[in-house]
Design brief:
The protein is an alpha/beta fold and about 600 residues long. The chain has 16 helices and 23 strands.
Amino acid sequence: MDEANTENKPVIADSNVENEEKSDQPIESVASIEEVQKAGNEFEYLERNEFTSEIFKIEVKNLGYFGIGEFKKLLKNTLKLDITKIKSPTHKEFAFVCFRSQEDQQRALETLNGYKWKGKVLKALAAKASADPLHKRRGEEQTGESKPKRQRTAVEATCPLAGMPYEQQLEQKTEEMAALLKKYTQELRRLNAAAKPHLDKFQFNGVLPSPNVEGYRNKNEFTVGKNAAGDIIVGFRLGSYSDGSVEVADVQQLPHLPAQAKWAALSFQQLVRQSKFKPFNPVGNLGHFRQLMVRTSSATGELMLVAGIYSSNLSEAEQLELQQELKTFFELPEQNENYKCTSLYYQDVKHREAGQMINPVTHLSGSTHITDTIQGLQFRISPLAFFQINTEGASVLYQQAIDLAAPTQDTTMLDICCGTGTIALAFAKHCKQVLGVEIVPDAIKDAEYNAEANGIKNCKFFAGNADDYIKSMVREALYGQEPGKPVDLIAVVDPPRAGLHNRSIAAIRSASAIKRLVYVSCNPNSAKRNFIELARPESKQYKGEPFYPKSAVAVDMFPHTSHTELVILFERESKTMPTEAVTKEAAIEAEIATTVECAESVAAPTA
């Protein structure tokens, strides 16, 4: 929950959406005294001396059927409104939009009220602040409006399959993944009749086991809080804030955590308990110690700790004092008897400013990185860089991606969302060249370092948004193509949980030189949207021949949990077959033509 700037405070109101008609003129919502009294602490967050965009919120009605993406594009690109977030219930014709200032809110009201969009005349009104979900839930429980949920145990919350034999876990995951892929292929049959012969040949090769079932997680993010008895605990949250739970449970019995991570949680817990600084409490945003990120290396035994501190209520002098306390504590001899913190960071974890993508870190002591090994390659890992959670499982995962892609010494591979270069460098010895792009600059520095450290010369990395670099990477690959030789261009994507943005999918679709695509997904349910976008018929937004799924295999990267990593090979039939030789000039001209033709349609609504 964002927090409030006490200046420009609105009159507090109930957060329920009103259904009755309102005046055409924007008005400020007003709550009665009875409403405020009934709400209790539900709106207490508005009184805090911190920013919340809930203060500057509007409701936009009469939208008709719309997608969040196209509505966001209207607000930001067409109308140039400076929005912070959009909230809309599924299958509804209204949305809430939040802003950073009263001036931005008022301009949006004046711009949107009466604006014609998609054949509809929009109505914009000032909206009420949402109630704090935790206080709201607790209030409902006290009045009997809802029943308290049974609190889960730490094992139930994080390792729901831990009580099941591992062979049975694999069987269950295979059945679930097969059902998901069946649902996907059925949906694709309805959307694209031309996909039918390809889908008839589609093969799913099951779920491969993880080489390491116990203690496999090399990265863990622990919460600092209290258990049901009121003891300070560094562990995992048992429920969500919106469900009325802030309880934190001990992690010592969890099977998927390595001994180093468990030690780190206990050690940090000792520090918090003896410190004058307090554990963070999300109810009221009080306290300071908020979280602890632990990164471990099974190859070197290195241990990186990143202490997340809520600093909004700390002076600069107090922050420096806390940093020194962290450094002193982890340098004590008695703290290093079993394990040693080899890299220590301080992270300022609070509400992010406009345009801020990450919470900044400050190096306190030890080395600045840790090193781990995948497929015989060494990788340097910085605090905020992405690295596969299961190191040994990653070797299996990457080999499956290589086997499905089947690269040759004439192949150029594009690694989209390349992180620290793990997939790119694993592919490098099988390819002519590898080009990677990643939005996190520090990860690109790690990727370049990792390539040099491993003596790999045929990789090049770019820091930036994948949407902006896909076309330029394709052109660079074509410029380097030997005249008269076949164009063999493979794309590999390993995006975050939510999948690729549709602009990236559009860029891949329109790059006609890409014939094969390997999609690595840690959340196949979310990625299913991308799978559909790759294979749907050509349209105004998605130019270029569709990519059809050929085969898939899953790797159990997360034993004892319900999650599985999926690898799918997509191929497309294009007017120029991959075996045909293409002159460099013709290929580049075709790509440039497609780029120009597609430039405006990439931003169009989904067809």
